[in-house]
Structures are given as structure tokens and as C-alpha cells.
């Protein structure tokens, strides 16, 4: 049964490529889940499951739900027309510049406030620091320890917006393709997108590096046909350099954290990529959570109106782990993340609502412009980053999602269709 999603997504990818005759957003999303599904097979082949799933037999019902719900959410992106240079209406520079400069400032605020911690992490025992953070005892590596109290509101604000800094890759590629901006400006745009990588280092975290890499691949794909041959060559070289740096960090962190584990560093990387489907099925069949909460679906609402002293998704995971005796700080896709805290009914409703919302927002009455590209990214990011967990289970990311969505809706254009 573990191989079913792999063959399903393989056939689905072939169908999309044959039907559309090019590699589009939906194909990219399917490819991510195809890779994850293949790694799930490797997890079983090499016996890499963690203790409490070791003897669990994957059943048919969660497998069918897994494939069906993902297909439902991928469908609106399958219906999107290809991005073409002549189909994109331009935006007013003042809006573009305002957000661009804001995120450039955010990068430097986060960098300077985190500098001491970055040095400590890169020169210390990453495994030990990560363990402290995972246990909720990471106060000593908090960036706020190095910030004067009167500057903390600025740093807090910067950290909120930095949580989705990958969106600046959209600004970067839009700028190099359609605007006559200087190389220096474009370089700073690109650098501003990497703010989330600072979080990755501070938190001794691999997932945020992967989020950024997934977003980078997404925008390369989105703008590929809009690039000149010269720009494509430059971005291929840039991509090679980026992949090298990311692999170096990823391997260094993996070796430090898992080289002495039972599976070793190699097994750890396979398990990292392949655990989501297995855990989705396991929690569906074996361990539904009895303390129902919608905090993973409405984290901002809970932050503002519910006084439960739970400020983040990892903190909620630790509480659920303590109450059930089963470790919840794992990857199980965005669907499993929601299901783990509530139930499968809530998960199905969430998927249906998001699929319908995506379909309606990008329906034929709307048009292609920069603002709709923003919305395409934020809605697709539920799936893109959801291959691991629910990216928007954190209230800070929901704030950014809503602000960018409102901004895009208020400034939407009226010149080109998004849907065919």
C-alpha cells in the first residue's frame, strides 16, 4: 500500500504533461508529492520507520483520502493558463518599490538582531542546540536576548514579515523580467528573500531551507518563459550555486544531528522526505487526537481571542505529545497536521474550502497581473510547503497571507485572463 501514492502521482504527472504539453505549476506540485511518495517507499525498503510506526500496516482508506484530497487541491492550478510576457499587465512602481524596500530593511533587521546567535550556532553543537529548541528550552538562543527592549517591537514586526520572505522571489523575478531596475536593486531583492534562511540557521532547522528552495523552483518555473536567453543562462548558474550552498548546509546539519542515530545521516534524509504519507495514514488509523482544537486551522483567531497559553504550532504539538504519549512533532503533510489536532472531517472541509476558493478567485473574470501572481503563490504555497506540515498553522504567516491577499485584491488589474 505504501507504493500506491507513488504510482498514482506518477500517472497523474504523465497525464498533466501529455494534456498540457509543458511543465506547469500543477506538474511542479505533483512532482513534489511524487518525490515524497518515492521516499516513503524507501523508508519501508530500508526499515527506517520510527518506533511507534514500525509495525503499522498502511490501510486503503487513508491512502485514498490522501490522493483524492491532494488531487482536489491541485486541480485549480491545472486549469491555470501558461504565463506569457504579453499577458501580464504592469503595476505602479510606487507599490512595488514600497514593499521591496520594506523587505530589504526586514532582512537587515533580522540579520543584525540574529548575528550573535548565527555565530554561536555555526560554531557550536547544532545537535545540542536543536534539542533544546525542540524541548521548548531554546530561550538562551533567542534573538531577543541580544536586542534592547525599546527595539524589540521593530524586531518582532520584522520577524513576522520575514516568515514569508520567499515571496520576494516573486518581486525579484518580476523585476528582472519586466522592470528596468539596477543590478544592485535586484541583488538586494534576491537577498531579502533569504531572510527565512536566517531563521533556519537560528533554529538549526532544515525545513525552512527546503521551503525557500521549493519557492525558488516555483518562481523559476513561473517566469521561465518570460526570461530572455541571457537571463535563463544567468539563473541556471545562480541555481547551481544556490543548490551547492543549500546542500552544504543541509548535509552539515544532517551529519551533526543524525550521524550517531540508528538510521545514520543517509537514512535520516530519506526519512525526512518520506515520512509524511506514512504518518498521515498512521494518525488517521491509530491515534486520532481526543482533545479537539481548530488552532491549526485558525491560528490567528486563537492568538487574538482564545487565551490558552499556546502561542505556536510546535508548542501545540508538544502538548498533544504529552497528552497522548505519541510524538507529534513530525511531518505528515498539511492535511495530517490539521487532522492530528482536530479530525478528518475538519481536514476534508478545509481542503474543499481551499480548493473552491482557489478556483473561484482565479476564475475567468479575474486577470493576470502582478497582484494575481501574489495570490497564486500564497494559495499554491499551502500545497508546496504542505508536503511536510501545514505552513499556515502559525499566526505570523497567516497575518502575512491575509495582508498580501488584501493588497492583491485591492489592486487587481483588469486586462488579461488567468483562466483559459
UniProtKB/TrEMBL annotation:
Any coiled-coil regions, as ranges: none
Source species: Sphingobacterium haloxyli
Lineage per the UniProt record: Bacteria, Pseudomonadati, Bacteroidota, Sphingobacteriia, Sphingobacteriales
Keywords in alphabetical order: Membrane, Transmembrane, Transmembrane helix
Residue ranges of the TM segments: 6-23, 30-48, 60-78, 99-122, 150-172, 184-203, 209-226, 238-258, 338-358, 370-389, 395-410
The protein, known as: Oligosaccharide repeat unit polymerase
Amino acid at each position: 500500500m505504501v507504493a500506491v501514492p507513488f504510482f498514482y502521482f506518477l500517472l497523474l504527472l504523465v497525464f498533466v504533461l501529455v494534456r498540457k504539453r509543458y511543465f506547469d505549476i500543477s506538474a511542479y506540485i505533483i512532482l513534489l508529492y511524487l518525490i515524497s511518495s518515492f521516499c516513503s517507499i524507501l523508508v519501508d525498503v530500508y526499515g527506517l520507520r520510527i518506533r511507534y510506526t514500525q509495525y503499522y500496516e498502511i490501510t486503503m482508506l487513508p491512502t485514498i483520502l490522501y490522493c483524492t484530497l491532494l488531487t482536489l487541491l491541485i486541480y485549480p492550478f491545472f486549469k491555470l493558463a501558461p504565463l506569457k510576457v504579453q499577458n501580464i499587465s504592469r503595476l505602479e512602481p510606487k507599490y512595488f518599490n514600497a514593499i521591496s524596500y520594506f523587505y530589504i530593511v526586514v532582512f537587515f533587521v533580522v540579520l543584525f538582531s540574529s548575528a550573535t546567535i548565527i555565530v554561536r550556532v555555526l560554531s557550536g553543537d547544532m545537535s545540542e542546540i536543536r534539542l533544546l529548541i525542540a524541548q521548548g528550552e531554546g530561550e538562551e538562543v533567542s534573538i531577543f536576548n541580544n536586542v534592547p527592549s525599546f527595539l524589540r517591537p521593530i524586531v518582532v514586526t520584522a520577524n513576522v514579515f520575514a516568515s514569508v520572505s520567499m515571496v520576494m522571489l516573486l518581486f525579484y523575478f518580476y523585476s528582472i523580467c519586466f522592470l528596468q531596475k539596477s543590478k544592485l536593486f535586484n541583488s538586494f531583492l534576491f537577498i531579502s528573500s533569504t531572510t527565512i534562511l536566517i531563521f533556519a540557521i537560528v533554529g538549526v532547522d532544515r525545513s525552512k531551507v527546503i521551503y525557500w528552495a521549493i519557492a525558488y523552483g516555483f518562481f523559476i518555473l513561473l517566469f521561465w518563459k518570460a526570461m530572455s536567453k541571457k537571463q535563463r543562462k544567468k539563473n541556471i548558474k545562480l541555481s547551481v550555486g544556490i543548490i551547492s550552498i543549500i546542500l552544504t548546509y543541509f548535509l552539515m546539519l544532517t551529519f551533526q544531528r543524525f550521524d550517531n542515530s540508528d538510521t545514520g545521516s543517509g537514512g535520516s534524509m530519506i526519512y525526512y522526505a518520506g515520512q509524511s504519507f506514512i504518518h498521515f495514514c498512521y494518525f488517521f488509523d491509530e491515534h486520532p487526537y481526543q482533545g479537539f482544537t481548530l488552532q491549526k486551522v485558525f491560528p490567528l483567531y486563537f492568538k487574538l481571542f482564545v487565551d490558552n497559553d499556546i502561542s505556536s504550532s510546535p508548542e501545540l504539538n508538544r502538548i498533544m505529545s504529552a497528552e497522548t504519549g505519541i510524538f507529534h512533532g513530525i511531518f505528515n503533510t498539511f492535511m495530517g497536521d490539521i487532522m492530528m489536532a482536530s479530525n478528518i472531517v475538519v481536514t476534508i472541509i478545509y481542503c474543499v474550502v481551499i480548493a473552491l476558493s482557489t478556483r473561484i478567485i482565479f476564475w475567468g473574470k479575474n486577470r493576470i497581473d502582478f497582484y494575481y501572481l501574489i495570490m497564486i503563490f500564497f494559495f499554491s504555497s499551502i500545497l508546496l510547503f504542505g508536503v511536510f506540515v501545514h505552513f499556515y498553522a502559525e499566526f505570523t504567516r497567516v497575518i502575512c497571507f491575509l495582508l498580501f491577499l488584501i493588497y492583491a485584491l485591492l489592486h487587481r488589474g483588469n486586462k488579461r485572463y488567468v483562466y483559459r
